[in-house]
Write a structure and sequence with these properties.
This protein is α/β, with parallel strands linked by helices. The chain contains 14 helices and 19 strands. Strands 1, 2, 3, 4, 5, 16, 17, 18 and 19 form a nine-stranded mixed sheet that branches. Strands 6-9-10-11-12-13-14-15 form an eight-stranded parallel sheet. A two-stranded antiparallel sheet has the order 7-8. Helix 4 packs across helix 7. The protein is globular and about 70 Å long. Bound molecules: N-(aminocarbonyl)-beta-alanine (URP) and zinc ion (2 copies). The site of one zinc ion has 4 residues, from loops. The site of N-(aminocarbonyl)-beta-alanine (URP) has 8 residues, from loops.
């Protein structure tokens, strides 16, 4: 059914104006004043609302075998949560372990999403080892439309790559025009520090951060940047959490390394005192890199405002309270991760735009457009333009609400952001022209989501 959104204020990364938007089939076909719609078209009044391009979460975990358990969401639950929060596409980390075969892993991850996701999706393909046969498999995966890799410098012996494997992955990525995303922490130091703390009887969640201090992340960031420089490959640091790591990344950028930076929602809003809460309350807030000292939040907000931090993702990774409690005896056994796919846009809008920390266009850029550009989705996604997919978020800036696990759609029994107020939320969310969300409720088609085939970008 054709769709006409009338009289909203369109806001993109570089434009702001009042107009009507008309979509036929799956794409925007007209933008202008006083557009007419044929009989039978769905007409939505956008008066008083902002109209954003669909938001893109560049870093989520949905199917994830990790730390002796599995993340809780399915694509059905995660995509509904994403859409209610205004995210119309996400890029999931496809994470076979070092024991698994890359191609089989990719097929498995793909099968979990197919027919289940209500929003569009793609994958960053994790390279967790590099051996004979890896190159051929990765070439096949890239040919299937996956134009980004992921490497972990952390998680020794599970996801983590050795330096030699990182070098081989970057060389191949360079040849294929693929950007490499990286979790930057020094795996060896983390393992040694963890052992030392446990040996001293320091077992609670408050010791997670000291086991992976800022210097450990700064080292990983610097090493990744150095390898990018040596191989002349494009890279993207995921979930950068602190000033020390930012300084290393900025130093690399300023000497010409093709490096982009993502920070994730928890690091802007939560500090390490959350993980220092006793027992399971602290465990709920264990993620890696860890929540940091509060002063890093101002550093990240400023870096985001001026575009040094390029994108804001979530690192959505829900483990419920019973799973978190697996780490009751030792913080090293707490499944790492905090959910956030549903809250990202509203919290960024509230604590960024509404609090005067973030320009409205930079907000759209960081939460949608820049990820689209970096990961080969622009201008299909990330903007509102004739010819773009009709992924639209009609946003009500007058809405007031409070984040609560009791009302969330993510399959998890807690929210890391419990009790935080929000000042705005999507009224209507469309995926390729079809209304999927109305006033906080999923009203759409499960399984509408499509795998987004992406071409290499060759930065
Ligand atoms: O704590 C986190 N971040 N969990 C998910 C895995 C990862 O490192 O991204
Ligand atoms: Zn990570
Ligand atoms: Zn992650």
């Amino acid at each position: 059914m054709p769709l006409l959104i009338r009289n909203a204020e369109i806001v993109t990364a570089d434009g702001r104006y009042h107009a009507d938007v008309y979509a036929e089939g799956e794409t925007v076909t007209r933008i202008g004043r006083d557009l007419e719609a044929p009989p039978g078209a769905e007409i939505i009044d956008g008066t008083g609302k902002l109209l954003f391009p669909g938001f893109i979460d560049p870093h989520v975990h949905i199917y994830l075998p990790f730390m002796a358990t599995f993340a809780k969401d399915t694509h059905q639950t995660a995509s509904v949560a994403a859409l209610i929060g205004g995210t119309t596409s996400y890029i999931e980390m496809c994470c076979p372990s070092r024991l698994d075969d890359a191609l089989e892993g990719y097929q498995l991850w793909k099968s979990k999403a197919e027919g289940a996701s209500a929003c569009d999706y793609s994958f960053h393909m994790s390279v967790t080892k590099f051996e004979e046969g890896t190159e051929g498999q990765l070439r096949e995966i890239v040919a299937d439309g996956i134009s980004s890799f992921k490497i972990f410098l952390a998680y020794k012996n599970f996801f983590g790559v050795e330096d030699g494997e990182m070098y081989q992955t970057l060389q191949l990525a360079k040849k294929l025009g693929v950007i490499v995303t990286a979790h930057c922490e020094n795996a060896e130091l983390v393992a040694r520090l963890q052992q030392g703390l446990l040996a001293e009887g320091k077992t609670g969640p408050e010791w997670h951060e000291p086991s992976r201090p800022e210097s450990v992340e700064a080292e990983g960031t610097h090493r990744f940047a150095t390898f990018l420089e040596a191989t002349r490959t494009a890279g993207y640091v995921v979930h950068l959490s602190c000033q020390k790591a930012l300084e290393r990344a900025m130093a690399a950028k300023s000497r010409g390394v093709r490096l982009w930076i993502e920070s994730v929602l928890p690091h802007f809003l939560l500090d390490k005192t959350y993980a220092e809460r006793p027992g399971v309350e602290g465990m709920k807030h264990v993620m890696s890199p860890p929540l940091r000292q509060r002063q890093n939040q101002d550093v990240l907000w400023d870096a985001l405002a001026n575009g040094f931090v390029d994108t804001v993702g979530t690192d959505h990774c829900p483990f419920d309270v019973a799973q978190k409690a697996l780490g009751s005896e030792a913080f090293t056994q707490i499944p790492n991760g905090i959910p956030g796919i549903e809250e990202r846009v509203n919290l960024l809008y509230t604590y960024g735009v509404k609090r005067g920390r973030l320009d409205l266009h930079r907000f759209v850029d960081a939460a949608s457009t820049r990820a689209a550009r970096l990961f080969g989705l622009f201008p299909r996604k990330g903007t509102i333009a004739v010819g773009s997919d009709a992924d639209l978020v009609l946003y009500d800036p007058e809405y007031r609400g409070v984040i609560s696990a009791a009302t969330q759609h993510t399959n998890c029994d807690y929210s890391g952001f419990e009790g935080m107020s929000i000042e705005g939320r999507p009224s209507v969310v469309t995926v390729r022209g079809r209304v999927q969300v109305r006033d906080g409720k999923f009203v759409g088609e499960h399984g509408r989501g499509r795998l987004l085939k992406r071409e290499p970008v060759y930065f």
